[in-house]
Description:
The structure holds 2 protein chains of 2 kinds.
Chain A: H1 3-13, H2 24-29, H3 34-57, H4 67-89, H5 91-97, H6 108-118, H7 123-153, E1 155-156, E2 159-160, H8 175-194
Antiparallel strand pairs in A: 1-2
Chain B: H1 13-56, H2 64-71, E1 72-78, E2 85-93, E3 96-107, E4 112-119, E5 126-133, H3 147-151, E6 159-160, E7 163-164, E8 168-170, E9 181-183, H4 189-213
Parallel strand pairs in B: 8-9
Antiparallel strand pairs in B: 1-2, 2-3, 3-4, 4-5, 6-7
Amino acid sequence: MTKIDIFREAAFKENSVWRQVLGICSALAVTNFMRNSLIMGLGVMFSLALSGFTISLIRNHTPRSVRMMVQTLIIASWVIIVDLFLKAYIPDASKQLGPYVGLIITNCILMGRAEAFAAKNTPLDSMVDGIGAGFGYTFVLLIISLFREVLGFGSVFGFTFLGDWWPRWSIMAMAPSAFFMLSILFWYIHQKYYIQVKK
Amino acid sequence: MEKEKVEFKETRAYPVVFMIVITIIFVGILAVFYHSTKGRVEQRERIELQKAVLSAFNLPIDNVQANYEAYIKELSFKQKGQEEEIIYYQATKDEEALGNAFIIFGKGLWGGITALIAYTPDYQNIINFAIINQSETPGLGGRITEEWFTRQFSDKQIMTDNEINKFEMVSENADNITITQVKQITGASLSSRAVLDMITNESQRIIQTLKEAL
């Protein structure tokens, strides 16, 4: 498998959100603004790539009995580094995301990719897989947040383009709308790409 | 009979040793990264607080450090029977006291809210109010940081006859509001209420404590 195949597989064909139903909590929580979604997505992508690389690097020495503890430790360390980096260098983004960054640690995609890919493949391939899975996750977050932000606030990435004539749908900024949008997205993707129509 | 040689990797001690080593390495990396960013984070937080204090007294924020040193004095007093000191910020311009600002705390929908409130020297009016930290729903409760919302509290009379005034929340679209009314954020009435409660409760506490301390 080439690096491009690994990326495509992780990002689209086996997308963590719509195919494996992982990372749903954060997909529901941060998708009311595109900016938040992008920052969260980049944080997850960075953590996935680096934790995948590190886990793969020591995979031949990691005892099976403690492998999940080791993976959690590595993931948590990289996420804390992302959090500290945002606090020090992108404080506005850190303020916006607040407790969500810490939630990356509990994002199932990280443990999922660590177990399914990084523990069995080379460091470079694992890094590409992490970038792909992170890209796929960011892609889903951005699609959901695009609809939620436009309908809820009349804006895209914080830039308002719909005038006062647009009645802001408050519900689009709240959790229930994320459930609707995620379900619609799941239904659409599965209908279009995964379900074989029987003639 | 020759004893079969067991590799260290196969022993029961290996996972324990491995876990200890890997923990030390990663905790070490984290400690180094934390210390290398600590100074920057603290400096940024300090400047943000100084900026908020200057804004609270409508003082210029073009040169934060210099203006802060010129106009603001950090003071503190002790609550009766308590060890902890309450820090406050006193502003003076051209030898005239502008007022005193305090950091106040409240409970929001998802977590704590930290804000800065500045009172006139006689503690009868609020000069300004600003949110420093909050974790309300972005786009909904998170709008408590918007200027139109916080500005509502500027110049509001907080005390009448030694009693904290009671405020009433009205719709965000209300046209004419009285001095005892505050506009709430549409779709975030709990966060709006949390801010109002924080202001009245903390003002009560501060003014009561000052009376006892002085």
